[in-house]
Structures are given as structure tokens and as C-alpha cells.
Write a structure and sequence with these properties.
The complex is a heterodimer of chains A (196) and B (215). Chain A has nine helices and no strands. Chain A has helices at 3-8, 24-32, 36-58, 61-77, 87-106, 128-140, 143-154, 159-166, 170-192. In chain A, helix 3 packs antiparallel against helix 7 and helix 8 (159-166) crosses helix 9. Chain A is globular and about 55 Å long. In chain A, 45% of the residues are buried. Chain B has 215 residues and is mainly α. In chain B, helix 5 (134-150) runs antiparallel to helix 6. Chain B is flat and about 60 Å long. Chain B starts with a helix and ends with a helix. The model of chain B is unreliable at 62-128 (pLDDT under 50). The chains are: A mainly alpha (196), B mainly alpha (215). Chain A binds chain B through residues 1, 3, 6-7, 34, 36, 39-40, 43-44, 47-48, 51, 55, 61-62, 64-66, 68-70, 72-73, 76-77, 118-121, 123, 125-126, 130-131, 133-135, 138, 150, 153-154, 184, 188, 192, 195-196, and chain B through 2-8, 10-19, 22-23, 25-27, 29-31, 33-35, 38, 151-153, 155-156, 191, 193, 195.
């Protein structure tokens, strides 16, 4: 089974903002009123997408952690400034600006060398070099592609939610996902031909 | 399952494993903050005043204790049950800014400086008895750091304290530098940033060695 086939048919996952759950706008309104439980709901829904986004922009795990923490703080501290237009867009704008500020401060961009790649944790039949290579392939993607890939697979976001977060059309999200998957498949196929 | 599919899944899982602790820490921190704000609205919480006063005292290196020096343990007694799993965070008493500013006022007046208010004035301000502006500038930086602490921006506060430590090191003010590193680590531990703590520990150790070599 080719890598391209797999990536094109990667199963969608339940998103944090599925229609069955309370709308995020409603949850956020409760946060504004001081509802601690609402914050927990809001946070648990958005923590992965936000972390994915911070990783995608900073290109570095440590910087992404700082950016994530600062983003959450900023969203909370500025909760009364939100003007009920596009909550996801607003939150991810904060994440983007925070991540870029940290990225510029650290004065380094995409992690390429293996020292920034992550050691495997308790996985069987593991080849750490190969896992590192896959991570590298993800980080080597163009910015737009990397963001949608991480939001989709790390953040478990739906195409619609990614469109809101990026403030782009659903069609454009789909196009970027398609091209990103295709690019990843090409890169990985070259390296893993022996596995096919 | 296709081994290539495994590797893609594992790569994403690696990222999740590496960031899971931070997500958990930030969650705990924010919930503690929300609860603390709720308590503050009801007029509770005051341990942060003592903590901030003590930090200010050590940063500027005054020879007299702050106006109010309740035991540090008082800060811990203000922890809510919900905080028990998280390290105690700074409380946010209503009058912390004015009190700590009075402490700074006293110290800078003792140094015969004209710097009596927080401002963004140049670090090159000339003050009587502080010819190179070190006291004025370090006070300003400490002031900024404490504002960040009071605003619960502990990551930024840790960075600001680190900057203060480096500033002190450049002036060979080793004691102040070491203490500033302590404050930075204190903030970094509050948010669970172990990487930053490790970096600060290393820098502080280096400053300590330099101080020992000078002696």
C-alpha cells in the first residue's frame, strides 16, 4: 500500500468542535462570566490545535511550548476584547502573533537538525532514525502546508475549523491538505522505498 | 499495518508526548489563576505582597528589610485546595503595586536618585550617587519584572529577571545577579518550564563561579 494512498485517505477524527458539543462561542461567553468549568471545556478542546499551530509556526518544540502558554494567557486576559466575529480566527491570530514574536526573539526558524527531533517514548518496533526523518519531512514542508498538516493530524481539527482558524476558505484548506499530503508522500517514498 | 503509516502516526505521537506535560501544566496554571482571581474579587489573598516585596528587596540589594516582611510561609497558606497539585502561584493583592513602589522609593531615595516613578526613561539617566545609572536601570528592570509577575505573565517575568541578572553580571554585581536568577527560576518553576529552569540554573552557576573567582 503506497504512502500516497494512505495519506490521501487518512481518516478524519472527531474534532474538538464537533456539532454535538456546545458551540465554542457559547463556551467562551461563559468564560467571560467567570465560569471555571467553561474554561476547562474551552481549553481541552483547543489545546491540541493551539499547540499544533505553535509548533507549525515556531518550528521548534521549546519555543512552541512558550508560545502556547503565552497564547492561552493572552486569550484569557483579552477575553473581553473579543468582538463576536470569528472566535477561532481570533484565537489563532493571537497564537500566530505570539508564536512569531517568540520565533523572532529566538532568532531561529525551522528545526532541521536531529538534535531538535524527539526521542521515541515506549513504542515497540521502533527505528528512531526513521521517526526522526518523518518529523523532519513534516517540518520541511512549506509554512502553509505544515500548518494544515499539524492542525489536521496533531490538532485533530476538521477542515471547517482549520478554515476558521486560518481565515481561509474550506476549498483552500482541502487544496493545501492535498498538496501537503502529496509532498509528504513523495519525500517519504524516496526514503522508505524498501518498505513498499 | 503499513509500516509507513506507523511512522507517520508515531511522528505525530512523538510530538504529542513531548508537549503533553506543558499542556497539562498550563491548564493547571490557568485554573489556579481563575480561582485566585475569584478569591481576589472577594478580598482574599495577600501572600503575593510579601513575596513581591522580598523579591524586590533582594534584587535591588537594599540593606534594610521591606516595610512588610511577613514569613514566606504565609504565601503558601493562601494556596487553594485546587492549587495543591500545582506549585503555588503569585497572589494578586490589590495594593501590591503601591506597596512595592514605596519600597523602591525608599531605596532609590537612599541612593539619592531622582528616579521616583516608573517610567520608560533612558537608562542613561544620571542620578546623584549612582553615576553610571546602574541602580536606576536595575530598579526599572526589576519594576518591569514585578509588573509581569503581578499580571501573572510568569514566562515573560522569568525572561525579564534573566535579563536583569545578565545586566547585573555585566556590572560585576554578582550577588544581585545570583538573586535575580533565583527570581527567574522561581517564575519558571511556577509555569513548569523545566527547560528554562535548567538554563537559568546553569547561568546562575556560572555567575557563582565568577563571583568566587573574583573573591
Amino acid at each position: 500500500m503506497s504512502v500516497v494512498y494512505h495519506l490521501m485517505n487518512y481518516p478524519s477524527t472527531t474534532t474538538p468542535t464537533s456539532k454535538d458539543a456546545e458551540p465554542l462561542e457559547s463556551v467562551f461567553e461563559r468564560i467571560r462570566k467567570g465560569d471555571e468549568g467553561a474554561f476547562e471545556v474551552f481549553y481541552d478542546r483547543l489545546k491540541r490545535p493551539l499547540m499544533a499551530y505553535c509548533i507549525a509556526i515556531t518550528g521548534d518544540i521549546d519555543s512552541a511550548k512558550d508560545a502556547f502558554h503565552n497564547t492561552v494567557l493572552s486569550v484569557y486576559e483579552n477575553r473581553n476584547r473579543y468582538q463576536n466575529v470569528n472566535l477561532m480566527g481570533w484565537v489563532f491570530t493571537i497564537a500566530r502573533n505570539t508564536s512569531r514574536n517568540i520565533e523572532q526573539r529566538e532568532k531561529r526558524r525551522v528545526v532541521i537538525d536531529e538534535s531538535h527531533l524527539l526521542p521515541p517514548e515506549n513504542h515497540e518496533n521502533l527505528d528512531s532514525d526513521e521517526r526522526a526523518l518523518v518529523q523532519k519531512a513534516i517540518f520541511d514542508l512549506a509554512d502553509d502546508f505544515r500548518r494544515v498538516i499539524l492542525l489536521k493530524y496533531f490538532g485533530d481539527m476538521s477542515v471547517a475549523d482549520i478554515a476558521d482558524a486560518e481565515d481561509i476558505s474550506i476549498e483552500l484548506v482541502k487544496t493545501r491538505l492535498f498538496r501537503a499530503r502529496k509532498r509528504l508522500a513523495e519525500v517519504l517514498r524516496i526514503h522508505f522505498e524498501s518498505y513498499v | 499495518m503499513n509500516p509507513l503509516d506507523d511512522k507517520l502516526d508515531q511522528a505525530i505521537q512523538d510530538l504529542r508526548d513531548a508537549t503533553g506535560h506543558r499542556m497539562s501544566t498550563t491548564r493547571s496554571y490557568m485554573l489556579a489563576r481563575i480561582r485566585r482571581e475569584r478569591m481576589t474579587r472577594w478580598g482574599l489573598g495577600g501572600g503575593g505582597l510579601a513575596l513581591l516585596s522580598i523579591i524586590t528587596y533582594f534584587i535591588v540589594g537594599g540593606t534594610e528589610p521591606p516595610s512588610q516582611t511577613p514569613p514566606i510561609e504565609n504565601a503558601n497558606t493562601n494556596a487553594t485546595p485546587a492549587n495543591s497539585n500545582t506549585e503555588n502561584t503569585f497572589s494578586k493583592p490589590a495594593n501590591v503595586s503601591s506597596q512595592t513602589r514605596l519600597d523602591w522609593q525608599k531605596r532609590v531615595n537612599n541612593s539619592e536618585t531622582t528616579e521616583g516613578q516608573q517610567s520608560s526613561s533612558s537608562m542613561h539617566m544620571t542620578v546623584q550617587g549612582d553615576n553610571d545609572g546602574f541602580i536606576a536601570e536595575s530598579t526599572k528592570i526589576a519594576d518591569d519584572a514585578e509588573r509581569l509577575v503581578a499580571a501573572d505573565e510568569l514566562v515573560a517575568a522569568a525572561q525579564k529577571f534573566r535579563g536583569l541578572a545578565q545586566f547585573c553580571e555585566a556590572r560585576a554585581e554578582w550577588k544581585r545577579a545570583i538573586t535575580a536568577y533565583d527570581s527567574a527560576m522561581h517564575c519558571a518553576r511556577r509555569v513548569g518550564d523545566n527547560t528554562l529552569v535548567a538554563s537559568l540554573t546553569k547561568a546562575q552557576s556560572s555567575a557563582s563561579k565568577k563571583a568566587a573567582n573574583r573573591n
